[in-house]
């Protein structure tokens, strides 16, 4: 059960802290008991008690949308679910502007071209030393370097978001600060955090849009773009109808 209840069960769930009417809390408790549900990590997502062990990664975070509500989420799995791997590794897009990788591509790329010129003049083809093995060696070195850089290079906006989240958490849990000061300071920081999340969300949407346009125009994913496939079918049908009546 997920929803915006506009009430909290405990005063500590709201800043500044205050309690809701007892009738509201009792009504919610009765509903939870009837449905055999429980709340985890104050996320306001209620699950049945027998399902709680299959829930993980409870989160309450900003969504990147223009709203004064936060997004709550949880992952649910089954013990009988098959193991799914991490998939094919893809280089993060922010590494496209990394100087270390750019220098590697420029230098090693020229070396690769020189090796291609040398191999082009070889009389006999060597299974252990040819253009394919040279390219595989270059590609392997590049991926290894990119993986290494991806662990230490973080996008600027992500660093700012992480810093703000840590600061908000520290202030919210600082017992030495007056409650009014904590509330005001965290509200200001959350507004800044929300603006950053919206920027990141817009950037993600723009990249997804560009990728979809690319796949649509190249026809690489006809399953997801049926109009592209249908237009090709219509073209061939028209061609054969006109030329082979």
Automatic annotation (TrEMBL):
Q: What is this protein called?
A: Endonuclease/exonuclease/phosphatase domain-containing protein
Native source organism of the sequence: Gymnopus androsaceus JB14
């Amino acid at each position: 059960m997920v929803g915006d209840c506009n009430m909290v069960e405990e005063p500590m769930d709201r800043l500044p802290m205050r309690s809701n009417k007892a009738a509201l809390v009792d009504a919610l408790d009765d509903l939870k008991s009837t449905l055999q549900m429980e709340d985890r990590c104050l996320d306001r997502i209620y699950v049945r008690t027998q399902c709680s062990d299959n829930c993980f990664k409870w989160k309450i975070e900003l969504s990147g949308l223009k709203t004064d509500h936060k997004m709550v989420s949880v992952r649910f799995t089954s013990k009988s679910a098959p193991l799914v791997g991490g998939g094919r590794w893809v280089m993060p897009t922010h590494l496209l502007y990394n100087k270390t990788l750019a220098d590697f591509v420029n230098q090693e790329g020229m070396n690769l071209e020189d090796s291609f010129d040398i191999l082009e003049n070889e009389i006999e083809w060597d299974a252990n030393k040819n253009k394919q093995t040279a390219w595989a060696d270059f590609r392997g070195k590049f991926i290894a370097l990119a993986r290494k850089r991806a662990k230490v290079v973080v996008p600027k906006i992500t660093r700012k978001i992480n810093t703000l989240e840590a600061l908000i958490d520290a202030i919210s849990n600082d017992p030495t600060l007056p409650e009014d000061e904590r509330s005001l300071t965290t509200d200001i920081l959350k507004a800044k955090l929300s603006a950053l999340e919206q920027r990141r969300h817009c950037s993600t949407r723009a990249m997804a849009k560009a990728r979809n346009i690319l796949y649509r125009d190249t026809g690489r994913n006809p399953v997801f773009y049926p109009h592209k496939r249908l237009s090709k079918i219509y073209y061939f049908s028209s061609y054969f109808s006109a030329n082979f009546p």
